[in-house]
Design a protein that fits this description.
This protein is mainly α. It has two domains: 114 residues, no CATH class; 165 residues, 2-Layer Sandwich (Zincin-like). The chain contains eleven helices and four strands.
Length: 302
């Protein structure tokens, strides 16, 4: 179990470092191709950070509104509150607020910028279809997202994707207007200038896609880590494994979910990820792989 957690943390860090290196590569190409220097990058950074900060402080309200979730009291759902409060104590966190989505498709997500401003949201279908141990496994997974500050990590990833997208757009506009080509010929000239133009053009076209794929890869690694950390709270891998099996077998799509919020849920709520190419753009690792990892933990525990 501890080896699984360590491996997931290392892979997450390596992905983030690769992401940072890729952003610097795009910055270098931007400065070389457009001739705008570091001023253009700083401007792009300011815009991206401003958008991310605004989204970071209001993301929970936006997500809950989009998801048509409503707050619930302990008197209305004592069973849910009992599980959430017990696992919050185990995790050493303040108890998150509880929200409900009135939908028979079983699913859950956590949001909030830090443990003090956190929310766990579940569907009515999850409460109806999971037994006590399975519900504890799901809530422990979401509690781990809160404890691991995964919302913060995703915000950093969003900032990086935003920077890459802005720089890519400006590079393409520079090519379109011809300014980048003129400045590059004056600066480099000849064959070296032509090679630099090709590199810049390729990066301008592909960098937003590559950045998005890296962001999704980080999201998938964090799901594995939340599974492992969730098991640390419940000490019962079979509970979450059983819950994931039920979630995978359930045919219902969550009506209020969309591509903007799908990455938040414990499993993809859209039920439409098929084929190897589409899996590259999935926000979640294959459920079969997650179940296999959990069953391995259960076997090693015995």
């Amino acid at each position: 179990m501890y080896e699984q957690i360590t491996a997931n943390k290392i892979k997450s860090v390596l992905l983030v470092l690769f992401f940072v290196a890729f952003v610097f590569l795009v910055v270098w190409a931007f400065e070389e191709v457009t001739g705008w220097g570091k001023g253009g990058f700083v401007f792009a950074l300011i815009i991206s950070v401003a958008m991310a900060v605004g989204g970071y402080y209001s993301s929970d309200k936006i997500v809950l509104a989009i998801s048509q979730a409503r707050p619930v009291s302990k008197e209305e759902y004592p069973y849910l509150y009992n599980v959430v409060e017990g696992l919050a104590i185990a995790a050493g966190l303040p108890a998150p607020r509880c929200y409900i989505i009135n939908d028979t498709a079983p699913n859950a997500f956590a949001t909030g910028r830090n443990p003090e401003h956190s929310v766990i949201c579940v569907t009515t279908g999850l409460l109806q279809k999971m037994d006590r141990l399975e519900l504890e496994g799901v809530i422990a997974h979401e509690m781990s997202h809160i404890k691991n500050y995964d919302v913060l990590l995703q915000t950093v990833a969003v900032v990086m994707v935003g920077i890459v997208a802005l720089l890519s757009d400006w590079m393409l506009r520079s090519f379109w207007w011809g300014g980048g080509r003129r400045r590059n010929r004056e600066k480099s000239g000849g064959q070296a200038g032509a090679i630099l133009l090709v590199i810049g053009l390729v990066l301008a076209i592909l960098s937003p896609l590559i950045a998005q794929l890296i962001q999704l890869a980080i999201s998938r690694r964090r799901e594995f880590l939340a599974d492992a950390n969730g098991v640390m709270l419940t000490r019962y891998p079979a509970g979450l494994a059983s819950a994931l099996k039920k979630l995978a077998a359930d045919p219902e799509s969550l009506k209020v979910a969309n591509k903007a919020t799908a990455h938040l849920y414990i499993v993809n709520p859209l039920k439409n990820i098929k084929g190897r190419v589409n899996k590259l753009f999935s926000t979640h690792p294959p459920i079969a792989e997650r179940i296999a990892a959990l069953e391995k933990m259960a076997f090693e525990k015995t």
